Structure formats: C-alpha cells, structure tokens
Amino acid sequence: MEERNKTLGEFIIENQNAFQYSSGELSRIINSIRLAAKVVNYKVNKAGLVDIIGAAGERNIQGEDQQKLDVYANEVFIQTLINREIVCGIASEENDDFITVEGSDKSHNNKYVVLMDPLDGSSNIDVNVSVGTIFSVYRRITPIGTPVTIEDFLQPGINQVAAGYVIYGTSTMIVYTTGHGVNGFTLNPAIGTFYLSHPNMQFSKDGPIYSINEGNYVHFPQGVKNYIKYCQTEEEDRPYTSRYIGSLVSDIHRNMIKGGIYIYPTSSKAPKGKLRLLYECNPMAFIVEQAGGKASDGFGRIMEIIPTELHQRVPFFCGSYNMVEKAEEFMLKAELSKY
Ligand code: AHM
Ligand code: MG
Fold first, then answer.
1. Confidence (pTM)
2. Stretch 264-284: mean pLDDT, rounded?
3. Which atom in ligand 1 lies closest to the alpha carbon of residue 276?
4. Among residues 140, 173, 252, 325, which is most buried (max CB within 10 A)?
5. Domain co-membership, 301 together with 164
6. Distance (Å, rounded) from C-alpha 1 to C-alpha 4?
7. Tens of pLDDT along 74-124?
8. Is the pLDDT at 3 greater than 90, yes or no?
9. Contact 287/157 with Cβ under 8 angstroms?
10. How does pLDDT run across 147-188, given as a tens digit for each residue?
11. 131 lines ligand 1 (CB under 6 A)
12. Is the distance from CB of 133 to CB of 117 less than 8 angstroms?
C-alpha cells in the first residue's frame, strides 16, 4: 500500500512489534486516544454554535447540561481509557490528584499510566483558534497487581514510552511518538479516519521563527531578553520572524513544520514558568527530541528533571536544535555575569 494512504489503525498494528515488551497494551492505549480525539474533535468543531444551542451552565434544547469544553474533553479521555481497562492510573492537568484505575474484577494488572492535558489553550476556543490535547505514557514503577502510587507518575520524561498531541485546527491531526520517530495523521472528517499524512516529522536544525509572549518582556530574565535581541538583529539568516498563537500545541506544531524555537520562560510574574512539566513539557520534549530538536529549561534537558509534584511548572525552551542551544548559551552567559 502507498505509505500516504495508510490509516492510523493500520500503522498502530504494523508498529506494535517494534516495542520491546509488546503485549498490545500500548497499541490499545493509542487506539483509545484516537477514539477520544474524534469525540472531542466533533464537540470542538461545534463550539461556535454554543450561543445558538445554549451557553455553558445552561440546559440545551435536548435538556442536556452544557459543559465547558475542557471539562468535557477531560471526561471523554478519562472515561475512554477507564472503560477499556488498559491503564492502571491517569493524571490530568484538570484534576488535583491522580486517578487509580482498577479492572472490573477489582484487579490492578495493567502496566501503564497516562498523563495528559485534555484541552490545552482552551481560552482560544472563544476566538476560533486551534487548541490541542497532549498525552504521555509511562510504564508503572510499582509492582503489577497493586494500586498505583504517586511514584508511578513522578517519573522523569526520559522514562516515557509514548507521547503525542492532537491538534484541533483547520485539520485535526494526531502526532505521536513511541521512541521511533514522529508521525502525523490527519483526520478525514467525512469518514472519521486518520491517515498518515506527515511520516517521520523532523525539525530543521535552524529555523526562521521565534515564538514567545513578548508582552511579558519586562518580566523576563536577562538571558531571554538578550536572546530576543539576538533574534531581532540583522545578520545572516536573522532577524527571525515572530509567531505566537498562545496555544502550545499549535505553536510547536507550526515550528516543527517550518523550523523555529518556542520559549515560555520564568518571569517575575511566574517565577517557575507557566507550563506544567508532566502534562505539557515532557510529552512535547519527547516529540521534539524524536524529531531531531531540543527541549530545555534554559540550562538543562527537560526530560532529565526529576519531578517532585504532579502540577510542577518549569520554564520551557524547545524546537530547532541549534536555536535552543543558542538560547541556552545566552541563559548561561547572563547567569554567569551575575557573579
Ligand atoms: P492552559 O493549560 O491553561 O491552557 O495554558 C497553557 C497555554 C499554552 O497553550 C500556551 O502556550 C500558553 O498557555 C500561553 O500563555 P500566555 O497567554 O501567558 O502566553
Ligand atoms: Mg495546558
């Protein structure tokens, strides 16, 4: 079959044997995410009609309660995974604590946990701008047969066995990695099937784009300010162009296709940064590295950070390898000049 006509379902089956410990569980997790993504996609596409069929908190004409879309997406992804009895635990950016999942026979025999941000950038929905789902899969650390504990979730990103995102954009796509490169699948909404549209996605080593919320400039650390000046200086391939959607999945997806760097630094307003290590940065870092890019907290590799809490925030620099390396140089130089 021609590579570009392959469906996500076919791709999952063909690649199942690439896993060292393959028992089909991971494939079933990706399949469940595929299903939940289609359900959420349907709802996200109808979001503009909400004023017509009823606003959040009201009852719609069918007598159903309207829900906020991020709450809805959270429930869809969690219930899809729970109903299929394929994970032993779930942690979500929407929930304060992790969820322990047991089988219908009350067993705890599954070996994977899923961490996710079910609808990132949801404030963009009101203005018809793309949003995304981000997910990350780890093998549990605690013994199979026992309920999961916090340890199973507080693993460094290097332990991820799979990570991906769904982008609900002009097209809806699933982009994911299981540690063997990054592949992107585009939904054909007419028949509800994802097709392999972006095989083996790669970041160019350098790129033309820098993405950062420059409105926060005065609050940024000196290294970031100096790097922004560098991006804007006329020399060789610079100045870079500035593109910032304010929707993490969309900004990184665009940079992966066109080449670029995304930065959400610490600031005097957000001293630890804004983005969450477990739900946003680690999965994106895994994808970015698998696509030949680099992901850093400004000084070191994101995926080597040992998490201490579920909702931990970190500064995030990711994208084209040489650009992130250059930003790190600026960070280090500014840091050293303090002494
Ligand atoms: P959220 O998880 O509350 O949706 O926030 C995460 C979003 C990212 O998608 C985006 O990159 C960032 O927040 C934008 O933040 P800001 O508006 O401060 O630039
Ligand atoms: Mg988020």
1. 0.94
2. 96
3. 2
4. 252
5. no
6. 8
7. 999 999 999 999 999 999 999 999 999 998 888 899 999 999 999 999 888
8. no
9. no
10. 999 999 999 999 999 999 999 999 999 999 999 999 999 999
11. no
12. yes
State how many domains the chain has. Answer: 2
What is the predicted pLDDT for the residue at 1? 46
Q: Give distance in angstroms: CA of 97 to centre of ligand 2.
A: 16
Collapsed DSSP state (helix, strand, coil) of residue 11? helix
Q: Do residue 244 and residue 332 come from a single domain?
A: yes
Q: In angstroms, how far is CA 135 from the centroid of its own chain? A: 6
23 among annotated binding-site residues:
no
User: Residue 79 belongs to a domain with what CATH number?
Assistant: 3.30.540.10
List the residue whose alpha carbon is closest to atom 12 of ligand 1. Answer: 246
| 208 Cα: distance to centroid of ligand 2 (angstroms) | 26
240: domain CATH number is 3.40.190.80
Cβ neighbours of residue 51 closer than 8 Å, sequence gap 6 or more? none
Beta strands in the chain (DSSP E): 89-92, 99-100, 112-120, 131-139, 160-168, 172-177, 182-188, 193-198, 209-211, 241-242, 260-264, 294-296, 316-319
Name the residue at shortest CA distance from atom 14 of ligand 1: 246
Query: What residues contact 261, with CB distance under 8 A and at least 6 apart?
Result: 207, 209, 210, 211, 255, 317, 318, 319, 320, 323, 324, 327
Domain hosting residue 134, numbered range = 3-198
Ligand 1 centroid – CA 330 distance (Å) = 24
**Whether residue 234 sits in one domain with residue 86:** no
